[in-house]
Recover the amino acids of this structure.
């Protein structure tokens, strides 16, 4: 009887629809998105917030809610894609919500037409949301309320501007925001332990290189390059007091040693496995030490002093910290790059790495279990989480979330321990920082805080709405003062010529912002909406590395900068 | 008189501009960076609404581009796409709904945006860009591309470069090109013959190295090797008479089972249905956010150009023309001037030096052209000044030149000799100077 074909599990309808993104953040990332409920506090022309939501509804967040008290005006139709003529005069929150929902039947959407003042004054009104996005213009006292909520509830807060050719956003994350799955570049992830091999690996390399000089061409040309490096390292050590190559010069010499050992009379000409070995020497002979940022995670208060209800991340981090203290290396990731080799031998080599990785995971898991019983934790940490952590241990990241700047009447912006780096960025020629654009946005907010359209402190008046010249003069003045305050706070001295260049830059940014008169350009809002939604996805899935903590985009020069505030 | 009124009425009438209140702040005011010649006010409004734009591609980027252009004040937009809608498009191609699966992208996208943004005219063409001739492309003032194929980009690039006539400034068609892959992307502006062109920049997009056939046939090590074996070797051996359709799930299932069986024979783990599909269709991960960023950046440049310099644009001679974007680790953009190559086979006039192994046969050399980052030619024909070395067609010439395929290069050409290579996929000819190594 013929072999029955193995049962095929074709993709589900959901897997088909989300195929192109599941290849990036996988089923766990997708599940996290589906459990989220995002609140958008929409204001101004309102485009950047909706373009952000569009890029979140499409990949399938769980729920969104739009708070927006504006009525649909003619001007909305020229800039906002999620409104139609028949909606004129209706609530913008309602109609944009409905048209957004059309994009993905799996997403729930809701809206609130109540003004932001009363909405924020209602107790617990922010409670249902797992992430909040606020758009400018917004009164500083409202933004401060949201910031306080982000502090106490640990709900991530985004704040974004899109004005004319420029955009900005800042992220307020919880003070300790760990990421295990950072998706590092494949090039940087290989950890082969060639200078610190374990006995099974040494044994394997010895077997495969046994009689290397007398092997026939076929065998010689198929020795996996890892074994070649290990073999020639032993040869090298004999001549160098048992030391592996230490510096660039020695590594180059070692490379030559391998290169000379390749046979030139093989039928194919050269030997690909030797070429691979030569190519790998420089990057694979570094001692497998953990990076300082990973070590500092082990030193964090949360990691050192575990409690019964510590988040899983810290329990595993502590367990891996113990492993590191004991062995001086992190658990082995266990992946082997592809290389010239025979199928069977390559699979054997993979198993040598996989078995060691499994052993390391088992030891870390033991540490975890003993911590759990010491701490009397109720819910055991899942084994797959320990596995994932061990695999990415060298690349885990801890983001230190913090509040961003909110303008306050009469008080200068405080930069604290970021002041020095901000001034360095300001005066750096290459790479040129767009921090003057950030000053202009802060000045824009300051102007909005001071001016109302009417005397009743109703809708804010936006710079340049009616009188760009007068408003421009004022915004430029505020922006320059923000720069001066920063330089003063940092205790820095800026040379006269540099300072006058900086003044010109700040003035130009401020004037170009005011030119827009509070208008959003659809392109810039779509671009900023792309950036913000991408960061929201990283924060919700706890994958990749989010911006720390402010970004600006300059649509005149088509450049961006990251600023730490 | 009547004529003037007719053309200026929709523009000058205050009623019709109410919708463009925000846009008009930019169009009717100057800023610190605006070009001296910027026709602030009426002129900018007119130049924008009269611009005829062609959008190539109505997929992930194309949907965004159409929306962005319509809401930037462009009123006459054409769009070309040959594809129909697939369910896996719906996670980002937001102009399509489940009920649209199977319909032409260009048609559905054009109708949707026309309905949503009143006053914009979008003319779809469901077919290949190669169906159209110079006369067709000449009608546009600029072209925005959102493509996933290098070949199509090279074709339109070469076409636009060859159309340029330096006695006619209308023949200069700015080409704005966006591309994405996962969290990465790029947006660039090409002014044919003035800035570097797509062909000059070809080595920025090196093709993935192919796995040698002997690895697939005898020593597979990775699950992907087993899938490629099923795709390239097993299908050819067992289902030769059936044309492989990578959208047919029965075909993918067959390949998956073949690959899985082979993987089991070699103890290789990791073959899945999704991986099979990914390898066979060469699937590139794609998400809404990156497409939004790159499409918007492209349209922002289109807007700056079409308004006559409401602000400086990429591609201004001597300025940056290329923005690279990476979003997986924080956000990083690198905006720079990619310089024109004097030996570019499309926009330059010098023969490009090409290092070759003189012991290679002509066939090996020609096969290698597909993978070399600077050439990437799949069906090359080659001649020297004096003789035809190999022609893919017509059949009589192919037959006549075929014996040359098996000769060594040094039997056919001299060191330093110039050869001309043509390929049906790209208009024009590629001049190379062969250097033996």
């Amino acid at each position: 009887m013929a072999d029955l074909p193995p049962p095929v599990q074709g993709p589900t309808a959901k897997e088909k629809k989300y195929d192109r993104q599941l290849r990036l953040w996988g089923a766990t990332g997708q599940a996290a998105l589906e459990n989220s409920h995002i609140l958008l506090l929409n204001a101004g022309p309102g485009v950047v917030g909706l373009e952000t939501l569009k890029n979140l509804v499409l990949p399938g967040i769980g729920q969104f809610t739009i708070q927006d008290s504006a009525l649909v005006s003619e001007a909305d139709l020229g800039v906002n894609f999620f409104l139609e003529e028949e909606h004129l005069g209706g609530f913008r929150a309602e109609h944009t919500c409905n048209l957004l929902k059309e994009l993905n039947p799996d997403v729930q959407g809701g809206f609130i037409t109540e003004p932001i003042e009363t909405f924020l004054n209602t107790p617990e009104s922010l409670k249902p949301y797992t992430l909040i996005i606020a758009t400018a213009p917004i009164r500083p006292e409202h933004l401060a309320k949201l910031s306080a909520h982000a502090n106490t509830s640990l709900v991530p807060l985004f704040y974004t501007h899109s004005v004319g050719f420029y955009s900005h956003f800042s992220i307020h994350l919880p003070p300790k925001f760990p990421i295990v799955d950072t998706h590092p570049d494949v090039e940087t992830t290989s950890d082969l332990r060639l200078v610190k091999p374990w006995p099974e690996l040494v044994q394997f390399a010895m077997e495969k290189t046994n009689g290397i000089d007398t092997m026939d061409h076929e065998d010689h040309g198929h020795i996996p390059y890892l074994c070649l490096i290990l073999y020639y390292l032993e040869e090298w050590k004999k001549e160098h007091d048992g030391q592996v190559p230490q510096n660039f010069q020695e590594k180059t010499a070692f490379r030559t040693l391998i290169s000379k050992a390749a046979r030139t009379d093989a039928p194919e000409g050269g030997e690909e496995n030797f070429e691979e070995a030569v190519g790998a020497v420089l990057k694979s002979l570094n001692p497998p030490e953990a990076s300082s940022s990973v070590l500092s995670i082990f030193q964090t208060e949360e990691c050192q002093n575990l409690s019964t209800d510590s988040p899983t991340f810290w329990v595993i981090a502590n367990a891996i910290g113990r492993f590191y203290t004991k062995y001086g290396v992190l658990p082995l990731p266990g992946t082997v790059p592809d290389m010239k080799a025979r199928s069977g031998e390559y699979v054997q080599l993979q198993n040598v790495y996989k078995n060691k990785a499994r052993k390391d995971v088992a030891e870390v898991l033991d540490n975890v279990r003993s911590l759990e019983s010491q701490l009397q934790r109720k819910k055991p940490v899942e084994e797959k989480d320990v596995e994932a952590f061990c695999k990415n241990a060298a690349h885990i990241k801890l983001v230190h979330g913090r509040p961003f700047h909110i303008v306050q009447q009469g008080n200068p912006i405080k930069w604290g321990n970021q002041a020095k780096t901000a001034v360095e960025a300001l005066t750096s020629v290459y790479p040129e920082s767009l921090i003057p654009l950030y000053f202009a946005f802060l000045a824009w907010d300051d102007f909005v805080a001071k001016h109302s359209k009417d005397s009743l402190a109703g809708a804010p008046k936006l710079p340049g709405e009616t009188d760009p010249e007068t408003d421009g003069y004022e915004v430029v003045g505020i922006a320059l003062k923000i720069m001066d305050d920063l330089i003063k706070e940092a205790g820095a001295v800026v040379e006269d010529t540099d300072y006058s260049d900086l003044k010109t830059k700040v003035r130009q940014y401020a004037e170009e912002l005011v030119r827009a008169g509070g208008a959003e350009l659809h392109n810039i809002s779509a671009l900023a909406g792309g950036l913000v939604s991408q960061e929201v996805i990283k924060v919700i899935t706890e994958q990749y590395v989010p911006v720390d903590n402010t970004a600006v985009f300059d649509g005149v020069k088509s450049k961006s900068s990251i600023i730490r505030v | 008189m009547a004529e003037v009124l007719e053309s200026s009425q929709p523009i000058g009438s205050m009623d019709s501009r109410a919708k463009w209140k925000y846009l008009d702040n930019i169009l009717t005011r100057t800023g610190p960076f605006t070009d001296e010649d910027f026709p602030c006010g009426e002129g900018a409004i007119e130049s924008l609404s009269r611009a005829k734009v062609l959008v190539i591609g109505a997929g992930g980027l194309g949907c965004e581009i159409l929306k962005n252009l319509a809401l930037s004040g462009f009123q006459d937009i054409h769009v070309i796409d040959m594809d129909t809608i697939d369910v896996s498009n719906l996670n980002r191609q937001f102009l399509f709904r489940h009920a649209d699966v199977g319909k032409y992208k260009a048609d559905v996208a054009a109708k949707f945006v026309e309905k949503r943004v009143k006053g914009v005219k979008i003319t779809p063409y469901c077919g290949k860009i190669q169906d159209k001739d110079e006369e067709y492309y000449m009608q546009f003032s600029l072209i925005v591309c959102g493509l996933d194929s290098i070949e199509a980009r090279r074709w339109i690039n070469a076409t636009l470069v060859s159309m340029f006539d330096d006695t006619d400034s209308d023949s200069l068609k700015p080409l704005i090109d966006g591309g994405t892959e996962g969290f990465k992307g790029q947006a660039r502006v090409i002014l044919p013959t003035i800035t570097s062109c797509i062909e000059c920049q070809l080595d920025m997009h090196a093709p993935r190295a192919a796995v040698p056939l002997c690895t697939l046939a005898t020593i597979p090590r990775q699950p992907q090797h087993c899938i490629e074996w099923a795709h390239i070797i097993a299908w050819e051996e067992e289902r030769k008479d059936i044309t492989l359709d990578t959208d047919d799930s029965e075909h993918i299932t067959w390949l998956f089972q073949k690959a899985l069986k082979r993987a089991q024979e070699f103890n290789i783990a990791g073959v899945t249905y999704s991986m099979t599909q990914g390898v066979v269709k060469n699937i590139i991960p794609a998400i809404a956010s990156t497409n939004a960023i790159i499409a918007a950046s492209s349209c922002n440049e289109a807007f700056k150009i079409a308004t006559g310099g409401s602000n400086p644009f990429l591609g201004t001679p001597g300025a940056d023309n290329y923005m690279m974007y990476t979003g997986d680790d924080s956000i990083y953009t690198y905006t720079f001037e990619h310089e024109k190559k004097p030996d570019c086979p499309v926009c330059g006039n010098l023969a490009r030096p090409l290092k070759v192994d003189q012991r290679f046969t002509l066939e090996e050399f020609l096969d290698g052209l597909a993978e070399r980052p600077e050439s990437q030619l799949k069906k090359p024909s080659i001649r020297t000044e004096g003789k035809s070395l190999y022609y893919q067609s017509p059949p009589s010439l192919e037959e006549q030149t075929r014996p040359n395929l098996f000769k060594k290069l040094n039997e056919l050409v001299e060191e330093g000799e110039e050869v001309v290579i043509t390929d049906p996929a790209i208009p024009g000819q590629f001049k190379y100077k062969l250097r033996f190594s």
Q: What stands out?
A: Chain A is about 50% helix and 10% strand. Chain A touches chain B through 88 residues (CB under 8 Å). The longest strand of chain A covers residues 157-163. Chain A has a mean pLDDT of 94.
